[in-house]
Structure formats: C-alpha cells, structure tokens
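Q: Protein A?
A:
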Amino acid sequence: MSARFAQFVIMQSQNILFSLGRLGGPGGEEAEPHFDVARVLIDQLEMMQHKTRGNLSAEEATLLDNALSNMRLAFVETVNTASAAGPAAGDAEKPRPAPESPATKTEAPKEGGDEGGEKKRFSKSYG
C-alpha cells in the first residue's frame, strides 16, 4: 500500500504542475495555467493529509508533507510570475463562468398565439 500511496501523491503533484502550466502536454506543447484547478488539487492533497494523520508511516507522511510544500511554492511562484507578466497572463487566474446548459434555457411564450397552435418552450444555444 505504501507504493500505491506514493504513486497517488506523485500523480496528484504532476496534475498540479500540469494545471500550473509547468509540465507540457502530450505533444510537448506548453500548457496554459489553470489556477482554479491547481487550487482544487492542492486542497485535495491537504484533505488527504488531514484525513490520514496518524495512519501514515514516517516515509509516507514525509512524502506528503514535501509534496504539499513544493506544490504550494510552485503555485505561488506561478501566480507571481503570471501577475508580473501583465494583464493577459493575469486573466488566466480569474475563474471562468460555467456555461449555461441548453436544457435550462427557456423562452417566454409568444403573445397572441402561434399559427400552428404550439408555443415554443425551449431553445438550444451553442454559442
């Protein structure tokens, strides 16, 4: 189980670095930072640290502590670099609004009735 725990911590760390744009994609291209995703992944590691406290071996606890310290530092460095680079890089830090689901959009019934007798209740929007 120690090896699987170590794999989990290392995989989460790689996901954080990828979310921060510090690891390239599959083709070697540079990834755009997604700070909100990186925050969630760091929070998940912190949750694992909290929930497993007292149940880890010394090596596992050290691995998790070091991974969290390194990921927090990487996050701060990346945010500082992005904010120093200018407003274009700073836009990546702002969370993007979730798109509305087409099923939740409704259109008010038309006044005066339709010629076919049916009223349009839902509409789809793809953009």
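Q: Protein B?
A:
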Amino acid sequence: MEGVPEVRVRGLEEALRALSAEPLSRSEGKVVESLARLAASRASYYSPKRTGRLAASISVRRSGRMSFSVTPGALYWPYLEFGVGPFELNSRVYVQNVGFRHIDLHPGIRPYRFLRRAATESLREVGSLMRSLLRGRGI
C-alpha cells in the first residue's frame, strides 16, 4: 500500500548470519518474528480503545524469509496514528455521553503514535532476544 509508513531494522539479518550457522539454522527468523509479535502486542496495547476494533485488527504477517509486517486492519488507523487537523463538518453527530449535537467545525484528532511507540519499545528488546537465541533457550 503506497504511503503506508514502514519501520525497517537494517543490519539485523547480517548480525544474525554473522553469529554462527548452527544457532541461526536452528531458530532462523525467530528473533525477527518475536520482535514483530512484540511490536503488534504493544501496538494493540497503546492504540486508542473507544470501540476496541483498532486494537483487535492489528496483525503480524510474514512478508519474506526474515521479514514481518505489523499491520492494523482498521482503515482509519492513519488518522489516529498521525492525527488530523480541524475540519469543517457541519453535521449532527453523536457525542459520547452527551447525545446528538450539531458541529460546524470538528476540533481534529491528536496523533496517538501508537505504532511508532510500539516499534521503538520493541526495538529495545533486540539485545535480550539475541542473548536468548545465543544461549540456546529458544524464543
């Protein structure tokens, strides 16, 4: 999908290959997969929960040998991730706990940055995931 932000971790595949062939062949891609699953879990946790549909729609898909995608399925996720400035609405809308109100100008939506926060926090775990792989405990 064009215009969709993507987080790429450069050098992780090379670092895994450089470790040794034996641990890598045993658990090929597990560090990357664990990292993607951790990011998806945190993205669900940090996403806005008005209805819970956005959090439930976040999934992990393999997109290559050592590549995974964490993707929200709700079509409105970019508006919540990046925010929206004020815009003309001129409509009656239901306001939670208030009822129907006529609104001329929507105040906008603040950016939640739930995906960015999840990716940033998950990347901090690369070291512990790599240590786990090297110790042979599996992930």
